[in-house]
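Example record for the data management plan.
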Amino acid sequence: MSKATGAVIWRGPSRWDGAPLVVVVTWHSGNRKTGDMAQTWILREDLAPLDAIASGDDASICGDCPHRRRQHADGSMRRTCYVNVGRLRRLCGRRCGVAATRT
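Corresponding structural encoding:
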């Protein structure tokens, strides 16, 4: 049996739009800036993080933050947020809430 690497610490509706959210804590981090420490992630329970960004459904978490993916003056679509969402594939799999409860 493998050791748990994280846990769901909250489930509930988004204050922005009522969508289902989950807060996951992971016990260890490979983050060079912070060192090895617990990290929390606020995620859509029903969507993978990259899908939420692509569809605009990340508004459930980010609200009207100017760093969300948007069209810039040069016509390109990009996000300026510092959160490395690509790393979350390993944590979440396809649906974050379901995968997170299995850790």
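Summary line stored alongside the record: The longest helix spans residues 49-55.
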